Fold this protein.
Amino acid sequence: MSRPQTPTLVIATGNAHKLDEYRELLPGLPLVGLDGFPPGPPVVEDAPDYIGNALIKARAGHARSGRPTLADDSGIGVAALDWAPGVRSARYAPGSDRDRLEALLAATADAEDRRARFTCAIAIAGLPESALDGPLPDGVQRHGDCLVGLGTVDGTLTRAPRGESGFGYDPIFRLPDGRTAAEVGSAEKHAISHRGRATRIVAPVLRRIFFG
């Protein structure tokens, strides 16, 4: 007789940093990464928007793990580039995060309009039907068999990187108070970031499922 599975929420990432971030954003919830499950087929993120890609990753993670799975898709949009790179943020240029950051600064070197926006879509697949029925918390959207939350934060693009915290485009994203997203501590960043805002939208659903 097989043992019952321990209730867990899978975070569809192999990135230990992102898993740690979700542990800070969702304290007390039993979170695991995808690394402990058998490999699955390659996930092709070919949707035209953040929500579509988050849904692709969440459903693939659920198919691989057999457990409720949270996935996100996030990126930066810049007004001077018609809000690109958007969903292509992680593939904007080959190489490292620093290479992509430098490529974005080079592409906007002559731009006077420095408006920028971080966006994060979180999708959760594999939830019980009871979680999908009835009224949903404010901001939570149902997309077929998944629930979605969307968070954004507006700022401006700097002309040079600043700060040692964070990752990705954080060092060139200036918050309204003048600091970059790489110049704030993790607790403060979670309170104001696009991922933090999206997580707070879906958190009531998750807490109801895991804690009743």
